[in-house]
From TrEMBL:
This is Large ribosomal subunit protein uL13. Belongs to the universal ribosomal protein uL13 family. The gene is rplM. GO terms for biological process: negative regulation of translation; translation. Residues 131-150 are annotated as: Disordered.
Length: 150
């Protein structure tokens, strides 16, 4: 008789990975990081469980986009008040809060439910090369070479 084996939360190994976003294409970087956060790179992947790893993204201010997206792509946020819509271009947001660009791209590729919110907490994005997670001994995450822009 065949039985489906569901891994327990205690049996899952969590690793820490560090990704350098310098000269990486935003969407390709985000899709690979989202897969690692979700745990799709592991043989024990289960759709309804948080089986993924922690990911640290450094050099968020050096991420690239192709074409005219730097001047045409807009990020919207709303205060919740009437007339509270704020619109900002990619280049303006990159100069002000570059971490938000990477976080928004990755968050959009995670499930839009409680599981996705739990997975998003395992993402750490930093401007520059310094991060406070050296004690976790993060390993470099190898991305697809197509993610790098010249």
């Amino acid at each position: 008789m065949n039985k489906t084996v569901v891994p327990s939360i205690a049996s899952l190994e969590r690793h820490w990975y560090v990704v350098d976003a310098e000269n990486k294409c935003l969407g390709r970087l985000a899709s690979e990081v989202a897969q690692v956060l979700r745990g799709k790179n592991k043989p024990t992947f289960t759709p309804h469980l948080d089986a993924g790893d922690f990911v640290i993204v450094i050099n968020a201010e050096k991420v690239k986009v192709t074409g005219n997206k730097s001047s045409q792509k807009v990020y919207r946020r709303h205060s919740g008040r009437p007339g509270g819509m704020k619109v900002e271009t990619f280049s303006a947001l990159q100069g002000r809060i570059p971490e938000r660009i990477v976080e928004t791209a990755i968050k959009g590729m995670l499930p839009h439910n409680a599981l996705g919110r739990q997975l998003f907490r395992k993402l750490k994005v930093y401007k520059g090369t310094e991060h406070p997670h050296a004690a976790q001994l993060p390993k470099p995450l190898e991305l697809n070479p197509a993610a790098t822009l010249k």
